[in-house]
Structure formats: C-alpha cells, structure tokens
TrEMBL record:
Taxon lineage: Bacteria, Bacillati, Actinomycetota, Actinomycetes, Micrococcales
Protein name, as recorded: Beta-lactamase
Leader sequence residues: none
A Pfam family reported for this protein in Swiss-Prot or TrEMBL: Transpeptidase
Domain Penicillin-binding protein transpeptidase stretches: 415-690
Amino acid sequence: MSGHSSPHGPADGHAPVPPPPGGYAEVGYAQVPPAAGPPPTAPAPRRTGRLALIIGTVVVLLLAVGFGLWFLFREPPIPDPEPAAEELAAALQEGTPADFPLAMDTSASPDEQYAQVFEQLLTAVGEDSGTVAVKSVTPVQEGDGGTATATATLAWTWPVATTAAWEYETVAQLTYPGATDGEAGEWEAAWNTGVMVPGLEPGERLAVERTEPARGEIVTTTGETLVGLTPVHHVGIDKTRPGWDTAAEKLGNVLEFDRATTDDIAAQVDSAGEKAFVEVITIRDNDPEYDFQAAMAIDGVVGIPDELPLARDRDFARPLLGSVGEATAEIVEESEGTIKPGDMVGLSGLQAAHDEQLRGVPGLAVTIKPTEGGEDREAFTIEKKDGEPVAITLDPETQLRAEAALADLDNLASAIVAIKPSTGEVVAAASGPGSEGYSTATLGQYPPGSTFKIATSLAMLRSGITPETPLPCTATINVEGRQFQNVPGYPESAMGDAVPFRTVFANSCNTGFISQHQEISQQQLHDAAASLGLGVDATAFGAAAAMGDVPTEAEGTEHAASMIGQGQVLATPLAMATVAASVSAGHTVSPWLVEPTGEEAADEAPAGDLTADEAATLRSLMNGVVQEGSATALQDVPGIAGAKTGTAQFGDGNKAHVWMLAITDDLAAVVFIEEGELGSTTAGPVMHEFLTGR
C-alpha cells in the first residue's frame, strides 16, 4: 500500500492520521500531538502563561510604587527668583524692607535704617513719591544641596523736582537655601545699606538741601525796577524771652494798632507754644510810618531780618502788582508738587499771574553724610534757576499822579486808567484806597452811563446820522410806560425838537439818544462797542482783566436804557479807557500791560473795524464836550482833544456811578468813582488833577 495513494489523502501520499484523544495543541502554525501518557488535569502551557502574567503585573506594580515613592520624596524644583525680586522691590518702595525675608549679618533693624537714610528725602519729595522697580534678574546659579543664587538689579526713582528725578540702580543678592522636609524654600535677600543707595555704608544717611532761587523783579519796559528785593524785619513776640507776656500791649501802642488788633495779637501769643515766635508785622527798613527802634526796645519783641520782593512804595500800584507770601495749602495742592509748604509765591495781582516766571526753579542737593568725620559725598544735584523779570508798561510818574488824585477817596471804590493810544500801553492803572486792595481799575464792572454814548454815537453814525442831523432833545421821553429824563441841571439852551446831534452829544442829552432806540438795534450797539474795544477780551493785556459786556439782545425799556449806557451794559475803567484810546488812535486799540515773551510776542494784535474817518468824527464830537458841553473845566489842560462825562444811576435812583473820559495828545484816560453827584462835578475835578498834576 505504500505505493498507492488515496484520492482523499494528503499531498505527500501518506494516509491521514486520526487525531489523538484530547485533540491537538497549537504551537505556532503547526499541529503537534500531545505527549503520550495520561491526560493532564490542565494543559501545562496555559499554567505557564498565567504565571508570567502574574509576575509581570507584580513587576509593574512594584515599579509604580517605586516611582510614586520617588515622586513623593523628591526635592522640589528651585522657584523662579523674579517674583521674589518683585516682592523685595515692593517692600522697599513701602519703606518696610523687613517685610521680605532678609539674610542679616547685623542686629540693626532694616526698617529703622531705611527711615534714617531717607528721612530728609521723603520730606522733600513726599512719602508716596519714590518708586522701586525690578530692572533685571540674572539666571539662577545652582549650588550644592539644592541651593541657588541670583542677582536682582533694582531701579530707584525719586521725583525731587517737577522736571527732574533722581534715578539710580542698586543690586540685591538673592539666595535660595534649598527645600526643607520636602517643602520648597523662600528666596532671601542679603541685606546691606547698599541695597538702598549705591555705596552707602552702615550708619550713613542722605541729607537734602534746597536752595531757593532769587525771585524775578517786576520792571518797566525801560528797565526801571518797580518791585525788587527789599530789606525788611519780621517783627514779633518771642515767648522764650523775658517780658513776652506784656509785649503785645506795648507793641500795639508803639505801632498804633487799634484795641481789637492788639487784643487779637495778645490772644495769638497766649495760645501759641511755649517756645513760639508770633509774627506781628513786617516792616521795611527805614519805613517812616513805623518806629522800628521803639519796637525793638520792648522786652520780648524780636525783629528778624529778611529780604522780600516789594514795590518801591508800600501802596504803589499794589492791587495791580499784587503781593508775595507763603504758599497756602490750596496753592500747594493745586501745584501738583511744584510748590512745597513754606515756599514764597505770588498771592495776588501780577505776582500771582506770572508766579512761575518770577519764582524760578529751586536748586536741590542730595549728599551722603558719613558717620564720623570725612567729607560729604555728592549723590545728586539740581542747579537753581533764578526767576525771570516781568516787564510792564506802567509809567511810574503817571501812576503816582493817578494815585495822588484818588488819595482822598478812602470810602468809595475808585480808579484811574491811562493808555497810550499810539501803542496800547497801559501807563497807569490806579485803584483808590476805598477799593480796599481790589483792582477796581481792571476788574470793577459798572454801568458806564453816558460815557457809553461814544459807542451809541458810532452806531448812529453808521446808520446815516451826521453831527449836524437834528434830533429831538426833550425834557422827558416815554418808552413802553417808562419815563426817561435828562440829568438835573441840563441846560435848557440845548433842548428842543430839532437839536443838532453835535449839541446833543456835547451836553449828553439822554432823551435825544433814546429817541433813536427804534432805529438802532441792540446788535448794532454791541458791534459798535466792540469796534471801540468794549466787551472784547483783552488777550494781550497780560494779567487778569475784564472788558465789560454789551448784550446782543435787549427789548423795549432795556434796549432804551442801553442807548445811554445803563440797563445790562457793563464796563470797567480799563474798558472805557480803551474806548477813548481807540477814538484817539483812529483804530481799535488792544490794551496791554505785560511785555510778551517768546511765542506770546508773535501773537498778532486783535483786529477791529473802527475806521479812521469814524474815529475822526467821534473826536470832533468829544471835542465839543470840552468846548461847550459838560467838560469845559478841562479847557486849560494842555493838549486836551476831547472828553465825555457819564452818570449811571443805581439803587433807588438817588445814587449814581460817575465817570469821565478824556483824550490829550498821546494819552487816553478815564476816571471812575463808585458814587457821586455827576460825572462833570465829581469825576471832573479828579480828572483835572490827574492830567495837570494840580
């Protein structure tokens, strides 16, 4: 059979072998019969695989446990030093370096050292003004046992002046001590005084010295000093000296104070500290009004010498020039760091308006004071810059003449303003003693009364009226139930139904002007006034000033009142002097007091539409006031070219503000008195005295 094959047998010709009992075991792809013998309880290969799986699992578990134990007990990583450096900078900025972990080699308190080093600097710049920032941190340098080091560079800024800051850098050495019991440690800084200021040794401190600049003078445009440093004595009572308790009474007697003032001084002295100096008055050297030597002879009274910026005379243009004194708390706050408590600043007038230019810039020196002996080391310096002078157009002689003319008006506000028409320079701006320190000359606003008829006349000329045009000048005129009349004593010879406009103007006929209220609109009045400089901002003046107001709208009786400078029409003496100056110059004048500097000098003068022909006609009308009208008292004034009086009733109608305008050669002036009879009778004599000096 060996040579035969079965049609169903394998390819090699062998007969198929029946499977053994229990079947075949698979090994790879071959089918291998199991070993001979009794069948096992479980196949051996399956038992081996299961054992291998168990062993593998155990190994994996052991590895996981080992890794977990390693993870749990490993050293934590070194923290980033940058946040620590930021915390150190914040602690230094707050003035509490001990809030940060410090490595110390001294028992000194870091916070106390900080306070001692920066005490004067903090006072100079303000406790919240300094800043500390991290400029850079070097890469971490790892050491043995998980330690590390880094270096932080800190940028300090002290705003010692509004335009300058003291800036410097210090270095802080940071150390990382490593982990403790598996917990990450904290970065520490090696503390030394050099962290606060470069090169600062233990026990050294900073000293700050402020150098005050010389205050600029107020001078004339020709260079004459009007306000400059003047020797004075601060006179007061020193409570450390014997006799202080009776000094107030004696000093009040010597200085001729009234009872209330003396009692007030005594109360201030009693309430002051036991070592206080209570200043009573500042007396300029050789002031004839006060007996300085007699004051110094009083026990307990002291005179401290000083220099202050003062005018040539105590009262010379005082409301205009202003005063200088210690900065108020409000001024210090508004300055945003420019001005410090105790600084001398302008408190009013030109001194306040141009304080920055006059005050200058203080100098400042920051030095390092050694502990014992040795020389100071300069740390930072700002050179002082003295104040610059302010030049103004006042002419001292003209100003003094104006003040003398107002000297007796101690119970009424009053003013004289004089302008040079050819240039617009204000050569006098005097406010009388009754103004009580207020600059009535430049700021006092009142109805201008009949002086405003210059503006009304310009509006009428523009509407076609000529100096010869006949107008009705009646005793009274009624407008919507309100009766207007002329001033008491108005000459009957200048009244009638057809009076030439020239005569109406010369005698200031109220009813003649009001008769045209329906022909001239309020807007036309406003525009004519603006052509003369009234109601137009004096942008070139250089100091606080008001130029009046002429409403553009008014109806009925209000408009009728505007025709004669009452109603809602307001003017200042400066504004009315500008009106007179414009008429004299032949064009709209822009008044100026302070000489412009820098870019201000390039500003173009405000434009105006007053023509030379219009001004010539107005001058002719004003000349008639001197020749035949209400200002004939000025006929003897040299060079007089024209004038205009004004009376503006107020209150119950029994009181009046009084005015007079005048133009001579190259001078335009106005006199204002808060209350009087008539412009001609009250303001007229004052104008005459001012123009003639007698």
